[in-house]
Design goal:
393 residues, alpha/beta, 8-stranded mixed beta sheet, 11 strands, 48% helix
């Protein structure tokens, strides 16, 4: 073989190992039979930070209002009195007169992450010691609260989080959903099996108020882009367990343009790079589709090249099927599984582009990501010689 082939081969072998281990981790997770106590239902406060409207805002929010659960409160928080989501909230209050639904309108800021400021403002009205945080584009079943609270029977559990499956209308959104189901979610399951959960997902974060106070409340994450990751990480660092629930929620994915697709994917990539730089570099070892193609080309299509290519792609597709189709029952994964290699090529390009800059676009604003994941508006970063972020307390 040409000497360059020996450069690509270790990456292919690493990816083969990764796919195999992820298959094992996924089978272990989806094969578990979690215990359920129908008599365990502690009072819960659901915090819903809102900003504008999603495509199905009413349906998404309503799914949290008709829970089959004895005592729960839902607090909707917005920054501006002109926010269009307020009309939806008022309609929910009219449609669910027996539910404990509250609306908080406050422009108080505690940091650069406006969502976290919304959460902090909503927290002041919380009645119960167990909080559930979920993004506005999440939809759940009626037994959602009953299922996610089960791990809290153990005092050491501080956070419960959930995987999610995405539903999408446009072809571009379905393609993005394919990547979430077959690349992002398998990575979560691998991390869980390999080192335990030390992070959380924005699809659901159920957290004890006591655990939140221990890490310094929402002030501790008010300047971070990946607030969900930080909540899980900081809580685990205080000795609490973070549990990945068997409950899977639905996520509405709206990708109106190629530009919005790349903005979101680049933001996620650079956020991971800022939070965990060496882990981000290590993702190159999971890029088996691209590396096996390069190995095949470097061997001029030799027998060994074909063997490595087929083995790598075969395991990659098996992993995608087990997680995306069998485990999550994701519609895009079922329909477009054959496009996984195309997704991998696009994802490889995004991974490389993620190394090119520390700037991200989020909700119409441009931010600079500092080492560790804190964000600062570009205007402030340009005007300060030595930009520093001070967290209010």
């Amino acid at each position: 073989m040409h000497y360059i082939s020996w450069f690509f081969l270790p990456f292919c072998l690493a990816a083969i190992f990764y796919y195999s281990y992820t298959i094992y981790a996924s089978l272990e997770f989806f094969g578990q039979s979690p215990a359920s106590d129908p008599h365990f239902h502690p009072p819960v406060t659901v915090l819903k930070p809102l900003c504008g409207l999603d495509r199905d805002t009413y349906t998404n929010l309503a799914s949290f209002c008709y829970q089959d659960y004895p005592t729960f409160q839902v607090i909707f928080a917005v920054r501006e009195a002109s926010d269009p989501s307020i009309t939806v909230v008022k309609q929910l209050q009219a449609d669910f007169p027996d539910a404990d639904l509250q609306l908080v309108i406050s422009d108080r800021l505690i940091g650069n992450n406006l969502k976290v400021s919304n959460l902090a403002n909503a927290l002041e009205k919380a009645k119960h010691p167990l909080l559930v945080i979920a993004d506005s584009d999440i939809r759940v079943n009626k037994d959602y609260l009953r299922r996610i609270v089960q791990p809290f029977k153990r005092e050491k559990v501080g956070i419960v989080t959930c995987l999610y499956t995405s539903w999408a209308d446009s072809l571009l959104a379905r393609f993005e959903a394919l990547g979430i189901a077959t690349q992002l979610q398998p990575g979560v399951l691998t991390a869980r099996q390999l080192e335990g959960m030390h992070f959380a997902l924005g699809s659901t974060i159920a957290i004890r108020q006591q655990a939140l106070k221990t890490i310094g409340g929402f002030f501790a994450i008010a300047n971070y882009l990946a607030d969900d990751y930080q909540l899980g990480y900081l809580t685990s660092q205080r000795g609490y367990e973070v549990i990945l629930s068997e409950c899977i929620v639905s996520h509405q994915l709206d990708t109106p343009s190629i530009a919005s697709f790349f903005r979101r994917q680049t933001r996620w990539a650079r956020c991971i790079r800022a939070e965990r730089f060496w882990s981000y570099l290590g993702l190159i070892l999971t890029q088996g589709t691209v590396m096996s193609m390069l190995f095949w080309l470097s061997t001029s299509g030799s027998g060994l090249g074909w063997t490595v290519l087929c083995l790598t792609w075969g395991l990659r597709l098996v992993m995608a099927w087990i997680v995306g189709v069998k485990g999550l029952n994701d519609h895009s994964a079922r329909q477009w599984l054959w496009l996984v290699p195309v997704w991998d090529v696009v994802s490889f390009g995004i991974w490389g582009w993620g190394l090119a800059s520390d700037r991200v676009e989020w909700r119409g604003h441009t931010f600079r990501l500092l080492q560790g994941g804190q964000l600062i508006p570009v205007e402030a970063a340009q005007s300060a010689k030595k930009p520093e972020i001070s967290i209010a307390s």
